[in-house]
Each structure stands twice: as structure tokens, then as C-alpha cells.
Amino acid sequence: MVQLDLGTKTQVLPCRVLGFGGNSVILAPVVAPLAVTVEMLRPGATAYVIVEDGDKILALRSRVLGEPQASEVVVSVTDEFRLGQRRRYSRAPLALPARVQGMETVTRDLSAGGVRLARGGAELAAGDAVEVVIEAAQAGLRIEAGAEVVRSTAIDISLRFTRIEPADATLLQQLAVAYYRLA
Q1: Which domain covers residue 64, as residue numbers?
Q2: pTM for the complete prediction?
Q3: pLDDT in tens, 95-117
Q4: What CATH number does residue 150 fall under?
Q5: Which residues, including other chains, have CB under 8 Å from residue 2's CB and lie 6 or more apart?
Q6: Same domain as 61, residue 106
Q7: What is the CA radius of gyration of the chain?
Q8: Per-residue model confidence as pLDDT tens digits over 57-89
Q9: How far apart are the first and last CA of the chain?
Q10: Which CA distances in Å does 93 have to 15, 83, 117?
Q11: Structural contact between residues 121 and 103, judged by C-beta atoms closer than 8 angstroms
Q12: In this structure, are residues 114 and 163 in contact, taking their beta carbons and an 8 Å threshold?
């Protein structure tokens, strides 16, 4: 949960974060905005995303992107920030069939930047370069990407994509956001 503040004479709008990709953040207002807030909520408008981080409150300068919808607003955060989050993309806990180094497995979570897989029998170590295929034939989904192992535990293998088609990265980002829209 964050708050979106558009400044003078507007309400501070409580929002759920649906997802993010780089500096773009998709917000879902949890209450209907008042008319004056809707009027100020236009493309290019300056806004602040207010984030509580423990006992600190951060106000991150942002710019409204595109035409806001009743159920979501997209902003681009223009301030530099980091809240203990290393990832650049939303990650969703989706289980999809996958293959890495010829081994059949399943995703535990995925994002436009990488994927965490159930380990299966693969003997992979951090730094190994691999090819990964994520495929759900019934949904018409097939993504092939190059990746690097960033972490390998007894039960999981975490991969960072080193080569992925832009359309596939966009699709993974959309899947993650769709997951949180429905959550």
C-alpha cells in the first residue's frame, strides 16, 4: 500500500501497488477519487508516491503516464530510490512448465528480469550460463531465453535473464501485473 498525492486541493489517494517495471509503477486506487482529484490526474501531472518504510515516510516525485483509468494509474517515479528491493520488475508466484539444460521443471515465480525454478535434478551453480524455455502450450505461451544462475539452493534455482526478446519480457511483466490485479 502506498498513497498518491497530487498536491493542492486534492485528496491523498490510497493505492495498492499492482506492479512495477523499472521506474514505472502501476497503482490501483482503493477508494474512488473525488472529482477534483480526477481533474488533476492527467498525463504529465506531477504527483508524489508516498511510501512508508518502517518508521520513515518517503515522498517520491513522479509523473502520471498515459490516461488514468478508474481502476488504475501508471506513474513514472523520477526520484532515485531503493527500499531494500533489488528487483526492477514485479515478480509473480506462477507455476508454469519450464525446461532448463534439458531438465523438465516448473517455475516457482517469474518476472521480466528472471525466474525461480524448482530445482529438480539439475546441478547448476551461481554464474552458470543456461538456456531456459517456459512453455504452456494450452495458453499459447513459449518463451526461450538465455540466463545466468544467480542462486542455487537444495530446492530452487534462481535465474537472471541475459537474453530475452523484448516482447517476451513485456509478456512476463503483463503476467505478473495480471496476477496482482486478480489477487
Answers
A1: 2-77
A2: 0.64
A3: 999 999 888 999 999 988 999 99
A4: 2.40.10.220
A5: 14, 15, 17, 27, 49, 50, 51
A6: no
A7: 19
A8: 888 888 998 887 778 888 888 877 654 455 577
A9: 14
A10: 21, 21, 11
A11: yes
A12: no
